[in-house]
Amino acid sequence: MQPLVCNLSSSLASLQIxxxxxxxxxxxxxxxxxxxxxxxxxxxxxxxxFQIASLHTSSPLNxxxxxxxxxxxWAIAKAAEKREKVTARxxxxxxxxxxxxxxxxxxHTTPFLEAMDLSPAMLPPIDHLVPATDAHERxxxxxxxxxxxxxxxxxxxxxxxxxxxxxxxSKALExxxxxxxxxKSVLQGKEMHLKATxxxxxxxxxxxxxxxxxxxxxxTWCVETFGRxxxxxxxxxxxxxxxxxxxxTDPIKTPRVGRDxxxxxxxxxxxxxxxRTLAQxxxxxxxxxxxxxxxxVMVHKRQKLLKYLKRKERGGQRYQYVMESLGLxxxxxxxxxxx
Length: 339
Prior knowledge:
13 helices, mainly alpha, Ribosomal_uS15
């Protein structure tokens, strides 16, 4: 008897549940709370008799309606004024960020990069600068013209100081002996010396050199600017004594001999020189895909070198000096660069 009673009770319970669900499905839509909350039966309830009613948070009457715009003119004007202010402020901030950020490829303009990119102008002949007038006036005009021709970076591996010393020595050798000194010979000797100085300035100027000469001069400029044989006096290496070090037994570090051409900052400067040259060439040849890939490789290699320098120098003065001279910022070496 007990199994039969259990089966009857379970059948009655299932019948009651199905009857209750059908009754709920026949009920009309009723609001539960608020204008946006309603309880309505599902559309597919006839196919699925045991599916409970679905809950929607919006009324079906408002489904196809559009929101009515505000009719207050004062509110409309204030909203438009606020939008204009926000748009103007966004544009101002965008310009500030754009001006402050540097190009991750060529960087912003710095005195070092300007000197590297500068192409010396051709010097005119000295006779065109100085007309043939009185001897004393011609002498003063010669001296003024020579003074204006300042010696910058020279060709043929020469420095301005070396040229000045050589010219002074040649003048001393050309001076006439004391027994033959006259006012005319002195003026003539000075004029010849000034002409020789002007001629040497033109011979040694990079304006008369080839592109290879200019590249070689730029490499020398990078080494002399960032080489540690020069910058060690300006940025001394901080000493961090180790607990395990023993000054008596530790080997002495070999001192540097010659110029520094392999440090991270020198290599980064040389890569910057090549990058700027290649980027300038790609501006005219935009479809040169091979050089575009070479440019990307060099930019990423410079990123690695500057990351290593920052980690090694702990973001110190040497690292800041290199970044300021090359016109780069931390975003140019820490973020991904797309070319």
